[in-house]
Amino acid sequence: MAEQQFLDTVRIQSRAAEEDGLLSSREPGRTAILIATAVVVVSTMAFLFAIPFVRTPLPKIHAFIPMYEAALIVTDTITAILLYGQFARMRSLAMLTLASAYAFCAFMTVPHLLTFPGTFSDTGLLGAGNQSTAWLYVFWHGTFPLFVLAYALVRRSGDRKFASPRPGILIAAAVIASGLLAGAFTLLAIPGAGLLPVLVQNGDYSRMVSIGVSPSIWLFSFVALVALWRRQKSTLDLWLIVVMCVWIFDVGLSAVFGSSRYDLGWYAGRSYGLLAASFVLAVLLVETNLIHGRMAETKAMLSGALEKNQERFKEIFDNAPMVVTIKDLSGRYFFVNRGTEQWTEHSKPELIGKTVRDLFGDTDYTRDHEAVDREVIATGKPVQREFVTPHPLGAQISLFAKFPLFDAAGRVEAVGSVALDITEQKKADAALNRFFQTSVDLILVTDRRGKLLRVSPSVKSILGYDVEEMIGHNAIDFINEADLESTRTQMRLARQGQQMRNFETRYNHKDGRVVTLSWTGVWSEDVQQHFFVGRDMTDRHKLEGELRQSQKMEAIGQLTGGLAHDYNNLLTVILGNAELLMESLRNQPDLLPLASATVEAADRSAVLTQRLLAFGRRQALESQPTDLNVLLQGMKDLVRVTVGEQIHVDFLLAAEPWIVKIDRSQLETAVLNLVVNARDAMKGVGTIRIETTRSSFDQEAASISPDIRTGNFMMLAVSDTGSGMTPETLTRVFEPFFTTKEPGKGTGLGLSMVYGFVKQSGGHVSIYSEPGIGTSVKLYFPPINGEATQHFEDQNARDELLTGSESVLLVEDEPLVRANTERQLISLGYDVVSASNGKEAVALFEDGFRPDLLVSDVIMAGGMNGREVAETLRRHNPDLPVLFMSGYTSGVLANGDGGIPEGMNFIGKPFRRSQLAKAVREALDVKAPAAE
Fold it and tell me: Which long-range contacts (CB under 8 A, 24 or more apart) does 94-98 make?
């Protein structure tokens, strides 16, 4: 800090010294003003004193003119050179003008000297006549004030600064222009003298006054003096005022009051002229001497500062927490700091004169260092490399910056090196990169404008893009248009210092769907970058939606059950009174039909209220142990009559069903409702499959849906190959009075009654449907308590988990189901690679992945269903075993006759781990035929 302050002081003093030396910029001091004033006063008094004696003849001194004008030439030339030098530093038009004025005077003095009569010949050289010298004097003394006037006017208008990097060209042009102007006047005064008025007659030049030449010169001089006086702001302006005052006295004594050569006025005027030419030169020389003095002081100060800084730099390098070395061209150290001593565990005397090879032997580390040193010497450019440095405490990663040091001739004379231990930083970077590479959340790094700089590989599973497809693009290319403005707002708030946490933005998946991400982000002012971590909220939102739907259905059930219960009580009264009224009106045939219609309407209303009570779980159930297989066997004829001959009905009943406790009549009604709905969805043509099977759900399987409970259940499923339902319809199918049928063809209470009956029986309902594929409704009933417990224990005992180590390609479009299934397969020992759709699975296969088993969902988004995926992969590998999964029953994979294709491996969703383990093992252990 002290050194910096010292150097700043030196710079300020150097700048002040330079500015002090520039007469055009330095304000005149009090001393300068007093001296200038004294010169003007003395000159004025001498001028006034000489006026009465100006025409007094004096002896003719032939050497006067040569000495006088030679002095003028030297004085004006040196003054011009110094002023041109100031122009070179200032690039000022005014300074260029004034320097050219003195150059012009020097040029004009030469022909005046050569043509002066009696100096070199009686009439003068260059062919001059009697008038030539006089007119040269007039041009000379009349033009200089005009130059000074131009200088003052340029300064007054603000001056102009030239930006030219080569001021010498402008100086040369100005000198040439001054010489050409002097040459033009010379030509006019000598060959063209006859064109000019006569100024000298018989040695008398008083005509200069009578014809107005001398007064004109005086006028020009006075105007220049006034312009300088009004502009006076610098030392140069002050002394130019003095010059113009003396110049006026010169013209006055020589050409106004005087009338002939060699009289007192003529000698006095010439003396004033020489004096006027000397003022600016004298001041310039004084200022130049001061500059040299200050430069000497500055040099001494800089030398002291340099010596002091060298010591300080050496101290800094010695104490710097890094390795600093300097080697000669042969690779021998001649400077090392303390960090080098600690790093090598050698003292400074032991290191000086040694090479890297002397310290580390003939190793790759040594050869790498020598190669980099040679590169620095050959190119003369710095090189930066990372080296794994051998060290007693273990290898260290060091960052070396090597740079050339040059001699006065610009040749490389040494190689400097600075090294920093970055081992811990590398470990931290590696850990951070592992986190970045393995994060299941999406990590984005963008610049302030949203350009993506880094993208974590998890983007493939979340948005479907490869990393390369996103880097370099702007994030707005992937954000859903509706969320662009809110995202920009969050980024602006982050740059203002506010932390971004849990703000949601929808991104567009590569396949076109929308993915909601919850973001946490920060802005780094140091690197001018945004850092975002986004969590995929798709599954969470799905579960939240299912939970809300479940809560909604619970609330609707309580409301409708309560209303139906109260209304049922009222119907009891209405029906009872109506029946009594019929008894009383048997003998009144005109009124009996009215009573009969009332009873019929009350009966129909009672049926509706019973269905609402079933949905609200308030109906009176007559539950008894029931074998679902026996109940369904008894309904076969009724079902086939209900659906008609064009629809095929397939019964697949479990071999060992669990006994459940239910209301048989209510279950029969529920099955008939489901069958009728399936028939209507198929519009009279298709296949209905009625199945029973035992199902068990552990905690992991139950986590997929909030409606599923853990434990054993007996499942009854009714599936069809009809038109299916949209996701929007699926969210409302169990609501009372909601129907997709045409007006008059459905009450909307069938499925709501089924839902309420199953819930009241302690079970749950799931429905799976795809537009154009079909629908499967599954009813789950808990077994009778004692048998359920026994069966659950027996099942766990019997189902020893079958494991393996083969590779499995898992294809599932639902992220939550895919993650759950992948986790179960991995726990069973399999090597699993997952794909979110058929196209991705085929791409993995084409890239060289050859699984031992394909486990695929059947109905998937993305353009390919599971059967098409299997057929595509089996064209490459006909022996590839396939295990299909589906929320439908196995009937969705049936042939046209309703039968399951031969060799088809199938597992229904949801499934337990033991069921999955058994199904996978069976598919792997039996070579599957080609897909149908």
Answer: 94/24, 94/151, 94/154, 94/155, 94/159, 95/24, 96/170, 96/171, 96/174, 97/147, 97/150, 97/151, 97/154, 98/147, 98/148, 98/151, 98/236, 98/240
